Amino acid sequence: MHQAFRLHGRQRRAFSAVVDTLKSKIQGLADKKAPQLTALRKEHGNKVLGETTVGQCIGGMRGITCLVSETSLLDPMEGIRYRGRTLQECMDGLPKAPGSKIGLPEASFWLLLTDEMPSDAEVKALNEELHKRSTLPQSVVTMIDSLPKETHPMTQLGMGLLALQPTSEFGKAYRSGTLKKTDYWVYTLEDALSLVAKVPVLAARIFRNVFMEGKHIPSDPSLDWAGNYAQMLGVSDDALFKDVTRLYLMLHADHEAGNVSAHTTHLVGSALSDPYYAYAAGVCGLAGPLHGLANQECLRWLKNTKAELGGKEPTVEVLTQFAKDTLASGKVIPGFGHGVLRNTDPRYTIQRQFAQDNFPNDPLVKLAEVCFQAIPPVLEATGKVKNPWPNVDALSGTCMQYFGLNQEDYYTVIFAVSRALGCTSNLVWSRMMGLPIERPKSVTLDWLSNKVK
Hints:
The chain is mostly helical. 58% of the residues lie in helices and 2% in strands. A three-stranded antiparallel sheet has the order 1-2-3. The longest helix has 28 residues, at 184-211.
């Protein structure tokens, strides 16, 4: 067995039964994967995976296969798979809250870590463990409460995660000088659980400070992880708001390792920065307009489109002409296309079904539905768009605003709460596999020019 997968001796820290179960399942999966990793390293390390073009080098490294992520894989036609399962399979198979049809996102956390669909009892125990870990240190509460309301919620979230860093078990163990490499993953798992437990409490506190005059709603330990987050936000008493929150957090949990937030988290973690440092960096990447801000841009576009139509019925014919005029003016239509996908994003499809089942007559939902029919043919006709189909951002904000969560600057924070599941799971497996620090080669434009002569 490869030493990166070996669990060395007894750990010094006592864990709860559910954490022991998680460790055992992760270790068991690692033991199965160890021969595969060893063979790839020793027997196939010099095999070529593909060529790198000049266009890829100066074009954001698109399409370069150079990362390993065990937790999920993005197929251009089928979309993301969590440990080999499609999102619809996750929706159907993951445990659910009482009376809900939505697969629980914390259950997907278990799946990403272990490659197993958890039982109801295991998810119940996991939720109890997360609740035990969810209390924010008073120093963090004081710091967050002291920030000006004008500070962007994503800035506050990044600051809050860094303020939590002194609680890192990995950091403490590494600084002690006694932590073995084979135990890195165990302490990374410890931090992953605590970070995932605390991030919705931190995010809800930021929301209530900025938008609700600092009037907070206490955590309810009887609720599931995602349902409790919805409760603490306090924007709607409708049970469906808990469901749409569960749905959003499950669908956005992971999207392999190449996107900005996941790659940044992995990159920083590869330097053995603890999960708080690493995910704080990932959150800063998520705050960018080309990444996590996309869903609020889509909602704004729908609202502006509705206003520009001026009461005109949004038919396919009307939206087709509107889309043509938008493109002719040099503007873009957000919510359509994807860097990897070449089909309709299954995350969009699942959200669309939820909206059609529960609030099909909402004006923005109706408008989004017509856009789904009208815009792809217009984009396809330009001959410049590889994927004219809608992505997850086309409906995410629309579903949230229906329940009164219309504070658009906060949407990316919800994304960050969700993506903590995938990014921290991936950190655990990166340390389990003993992946080294990232250090790709960079070159100058002159070097490229000389190379292609």
